Amino acid sequence: MPKKTTDALKILAGIAGKDPKMQSMFEEEVANREVAQKIYQLRTKAGMSQAELARRVRTTQSVISRLEDADYDGHSLAMLNRIAAALKQRVEIRFVARKAPLQPA
Question: Which CATH number does the domain housing residue 40 bear?
Fold first, then answer.
């Protein structure tokens, strides 16, 4: 009997199974979550509110809120560069080889 897990990523990987389309969707969602989380972490580490970051990026607080939402999938490189500049960071993009297909939990 498989060991039960509460790890959401493992659960979702199990749902994706070996279906390439589902795996691709899963990987995209993970990437969206990571981008949103990174924006939030950098902003809070800099001691900025969403409103302050928005002012520096010349956008609105609601846009920053949306960008920090893991369900948002409209991140643009131009906006990420603006956010990075406001936080005294730079955007770095890497292409990495895919590992074996996701394994169910």
Answer: 1.10.260.40
Q: How far is CA 93 from CA 44, 46, 63, 73, 90, in A?
A: 22, 22, 22, 17, 10
94 domain residue, yes or no: no
Q: List, in order, residues 6 or more apart from 43 with CB less than 8 Å away.
A: 50, 53, 64, 68, 87
Find the DSSP H helices in the chain.
8-16, 20-45, 50-57, 61-67, 77-86
| DSSP 8-state class, residue 88 | T
The pTM assigned to this predicted structure is 0.76
Q: Is residue 31, in this structure, part of any structural domain at all?
A: yes
Residue 32, in any domain of the structure: yes
Q: Which domain holds residue 46?
A: 18-86
Q: What is the pLDDT of residues 7-60, one digit of tens each?
A: 766 777 777 677 788 778 888 888 899 999 999 999 999 999 999 999 999 999
